[in-house]
Specification:
7 strands, 5-stranded antiparallel beta sheet, Peptide Deformylase, binds nickel (II) ion, alpha+beta, 186 residues, two-stranded parallel ribbon
Length: 186
């Protein structure tokens, strides 16, 4: 089932999300729905707060962008209760976008590598390192589970330039090719 995506301005997007256990009700169905919602919106990743749930869960499929981004290995994975072990490597600038903030893209600088611990959809533990675009998508989705949006990491001038557009998203005065759930309509 395709879920509505919560848009910028929804308080759930600014909350630090909570870990879950394997008893979490309807987890399998939620994950299936998140994949379906993500692909329908042509996204590379989707975090649970973006479908209104303040829990530490996100899904990512970089296999879709493997060729256009020229990366060797894409992956498709479910990350639950992810914890950053460390981030290092040269600062890397990449233009990010977010399904909760349609039509806005902007350069964000982050370390090029990330090492994280997480459990997968079967609650099997993993600790892995990622680099380049793969790391970037994880860093972006991980931030969602800490209540952080990429627009907060843009340069001050860029923030100024997009301020009005962001306000229109908060007010629901925009549309997208997928269903959005706005904090308020005007
Ligand atoms: Ni996002």
């Amino acid at each position: 089932m395709i879920l509505p995506i919560f848009a910028l301005g929804q308080p759930v997007l600014n909350k630090v999300a909570a870990p879950i256990t394997n008893e979490y009700e309807g987890l399998k169905e939620l994950i299936d729905n998140m994949w379906e919602t993500m692909y329908h919106a042509k996204g590379v990743g989707l975090a649970a707060p973006q479908v209104g749930l303040p829990i530490r869960l996100f899904v990512i499929d970089t296999i879709q962008i493997k060729d256009e981004e020229n990366i060797n290995d894409g992956f498709k994975k479910v990350f639950i209760n992810a914890q950053r072990v460390n981030e290092d490597g040269d600062p890397f600038v990449y233009e990010e976008g977010c399904l909760s903030i349609p039509d806005i893209r902007g350069d964000v600088e982050r370390p090029s590598n990330i090492r994280i611990k997480y459990v997968d959809e079967h609650f099997v533990e993993h600790e892995e390192s990622f680099t380049g675009i793969n790391a970037r998508v994880i860093q972006h989705e991980y931030d969602h589970t800490d209540g952080i949006l990429f627009v907060e990491k843009l340069k001050p001038l860029k923030k100024k330039l997009i301020a009005r557009k962001l306000e229109n998203i908060r007010l629901g005065k925009i549309s997208a090719s997928y269903k959005l759930k706005f904090a308020k309509y005007k």
